[in-house]
Amino acid sequence: MTCHDAREWLGALIDDAIAPARRAEVEAHLLVCAECRLELGGLRATVGLLRRVEPVRAPAGFVDRVVERVHPAPWYRRVAAWLFLPLSIKLPAEAAAIVAIAGLAMLLIDRTPELRDAARVERPATPPMSAAPSQPFRTPPGRETRDAPGEPIVPAPPVSRAERIRVAPREKVPPAPPVARGEEARVASSEQIAPAPAPAAAESFDEKRERSQMERKLASPSAGRVTGLSARPADVGGRLQVRDRGVAVAALPDLLSKVGGSETARRQDGPDVVIEVLIPEVRYDDFARSLETLGVWNAPGFRQRVMLDSPYLRIPIRIAE
Amino acid sequence: MREEGADSPGFLDRLRAGDARAFEELVVSHQHRVFGVALRMLNNGAEAEEIAQETFLRAHGSLAEFRGDAKLSTWLYAIVSRLCLNRLASADRRAIRSGEEALLRVADTGSGPDANAERGELEAALHRAIADLPEERRVVVILRDLEGLAYEEIARALDLELGTVRSRLHRARMDLKDKMERFLP
User: Among A228, A226, A239, which residue's Cα sits nearest to residue A296?
Assistant: First the structure.
């Protein structure tokens, strides 16, 4: 047996995977060949190293993942497990998250006047009627220039309720400032006018422009001609106590036209009629006086104005007998 | 589970009948060996787990065809070895260097500060040497010297002649001896 032949069998000799006859041949060669004995020693040591290697362990959860793939759990169990397991970790974390989100929402509403006002408008509008206006009518700084004679306000002619429902705002209304399509749709669909967004510090140019357009649109008496009560916060709210509700309702358009105002919405609230109007802010005193000719006008006072650059006041008038 | 129990006729019958608990026992008892072969062949933990899972899925799908001529473990070794060789031969498989890190982490497991530092170095070198072997030699040396399969079982698992197993094993060990020379007495 040559060294080459013998070395082919050294591994099998180490593993005791060799036939007895072949083993005898290889061992006989090793007795006379020091180099092959050296080779055998090196191989034995190498195999010894290999067999001392630490066994590998499968990663944690391996069995569950295999079993899950073979026998998938029903979807509702998987969802429940994903949501809640392990209970000791996920349940407290989820509870904390809910509390944190609720707290954040409360804080946001509290710190944002628009959201706070919107939340108030959502409630049934039954403002206290006893108190007279507690503050004189004030024009915000800078308002005088806008209401100057050079910029006359064109009041819209009185429009009946039926006409308001039938005619789309863009067909009959004098040209109003261009507005974003979404905004226009919101006004046209009525009853869904959202409160003006809060002017954020980091507001983009487009957002500012859109907000400005929306405010101009809301401020325009023609644009406010909608078929339902606007969700925009009222600037003044009041109760007109009259002897004959029908007479008062019929006379109101005349009063509005005299002060350059218009009716924007009307609804029946029990026995009362609630009519929402827009009038120029500078004509409010005249309008209040003219209401006194119909009955007793009780306005609890001015609210915090949301759109300070609007020259119009939005006033829901509750006409009651 | 002991090997005898795993290959008992009752257990095989339960497996063939689709007994979920029996299959889970099979996975529990063979998970480390199957994953170990995959990890040492692919040198990447994520790929190794994928292949190991696939091994058990294939086994589950073929249990009805398992005649019991070989041991269940040999059958699983055969599946995982072929899956690994196919993966290594696939054109889109990249040589992932981070896989070596996975093996080095395995090598470091259990090493202490001083006395085991040298052992950690030795094992790292050994893993690297194994990873550098040609695939057909690597799988033989893994099955023989790390997993302890007999030549006949390796031949059956890899569908090779006994002489081919002996020859590839011899060459693999010679390669390793050359690369590990500084650690040998």
Answer: A239
